[in-house]
Amino acid sequence: MHRFVVHGITRRRKHPSPWVPCEYIFGHKDLKICKDWFQHLISCINNESGRPKNLMVFVHPLCGKGRGVSNWETVYPLFARAKIKTKVIVTERAGHAYDTLSSLSDIELKAFDGVVAVGGDGLFNEILNGILSSRHKVSYPPTPEGFGYVGSSDNCEEQTRNWVNFSKPTPDSGNAVFLGNPSKCDDQEPLLSTSHPTELEIPSNSTKEPCIGDQDNPVSFPNDWFRLGIIPSGSTDAIVLSTTGERDPVTSALLIILGRKVSLDIAQVVRWKTSPTAEVLPTVRYAASFAGYGFYGEVIRESEKYRWMGPARYDFSGTMVFLKHRSYGAKVAFLDTPYTHSLTASAQDDITGAQPLQSRWKKPRKIICRTNCFVCKEASTSGQNPEDVADNSRTICENQKWVWSEGHFLSVGAAVISCRNERAPDGLVADAHLSDGFLHLLLIRDCPLPLYLWHLTQFTKKGSDPLSFKFVEHHKTQAFTFISSHDESVWNLDGEMFQACEVSVQACRGLVNFFASGPEL
Ligand SMILES: Nc1ncnc2c1ncn2[C@@H]1O[C@H](COP(=O)(O)OP(=O)(O)OP(=O)(O)O)[C@@H](O)[C@H]1O
């Protein structure tokens, strides 16, 4: 008998990883038949255009509990087997991935099918900002009358970059070439292995659709070919949990290898001022999961002092900030469109400081975002091509109405996706969608400490409704602005600190593609 091995993927319900590699051995006494089968499978694999061939991989060696390198070592053989070329860069400092990607020319970027973070949400945020900083051409978010920055609709091309320490990319520390493979079936997907991985140079070329060397054809976002991915290795991994339903490096690696693709909304955050007395200097940042102020910003700022504690510093800082029970005077205006669903405090409530909210309509039934989500599909088919929706604000401006909310807030947050994590199994907003073009604005008004604790503990219980409290405003919106008079106003963008006291934010629908199929819940 002559034999060959087909490497596949299967699911084992009881296995902690829902997707696991497996092997099938085939044999025939006729060598030619074996070779024919083999060639046929190879050509099927090569016909799968969605599978990535070249990836840039950033490994954060210190993320989570220092699992970045070991997680990459675990999944690397899968990429090798699938013959996917990887240019691996182990980060040496914060900002390394951002500097590398923002300084990459479009020609160099086009050599890759995507970029993968082996780390947490923070490393992914750096990658996202590095990729988009010069390639996302769109107007600033719309702002209400009275927000008052002339030029708020100017193009962001001139956006300020203030990431520190530009550095050249480090030499790749582990290039190798590998090969792709086929199948649409979820359960048993072959990963044909034909040879051992061989060392290879960084790809200077790619067979991808965009023309290499075409200076007139710059990389812009959104597009339908470039994808981002995460091998989860961080402290929270909310982006992976919200997009795959799992927090498993092997599952994420297999989704990348198979070339799965889902569109992600991204929040574009424009900071107008760092503090009330600072000069106006618009600076653009992007967030894939969450942008939060007040409690959320303070926890991040506080936790920086206790880095030595590892991931436990978030619990510690969270408790410290919670006990301080500080509220922040602020004005928030959000865009109310015909598609906006809100539980909004009336103006009178704001003035009297009274808590009750008036439900303007009954909250709609929660539709959870899952694989092949029809809400996200509807949103994408009701729009036009990704290129046509690039200028989101133009579309938003029709039928817009701004609603102001003013008072003292314990926190102000905007969830782009559900933000599931181990502490909040349903996430911050259980029914947030990956690519419906909306943000979920959460305004937590000042309230007695025990009530606030009750609200926070609801996040830890599956199936509860932490947003149903009277002091919680939940608005599904496409854009909002925020003004505070505090000198040390800190935002938390995907877990990263961002000092800002005046911001405007908009959801950019399906701005990037992610290697995933949506949460399988
Ligand atoms: N080699 C490095 N040394 C120090 N910081 C780094 C390095 N590489 C990346 N970073 C930064 O570390 C921060 C956290 O990264 P990431 O989110 O991937 O890990 P995490 O463990 O989930 O996060 P955190 O440390 O915030 O809990 C990010 O701001 C990232 O820019």
From TrEMBL:
Organism: Zea mays (Maize)
Bias-annotated ranges (Polar residues): 191-208
Residue segments, region Disordered: 189-211
EC number: 2.7.1.138
Protein name, entry field: Ceramide kinase
Coiled-coil intervals, chain numbering: none
Signal peptide: none
InterPro entries for this protein: ATP-NAD_kinase_N, CERK_C, Diacylglycerol_kinase_cat_dom, Lipid_Phosphate_FormReg, NAD/diacylglycerol_kinase_sf
Pfam families, per the entry: CERK_C, DAGK_cat
Cofactor(s) essential for the protein: Ca(2+)
Any one GO biological process: regulation of programmed cell death
Chemical reaction(s) catalysed: an N-acylsphing-4-enine + ATP = an N-acylsphing-4-enine 1-phosphate + ADP + H(+)
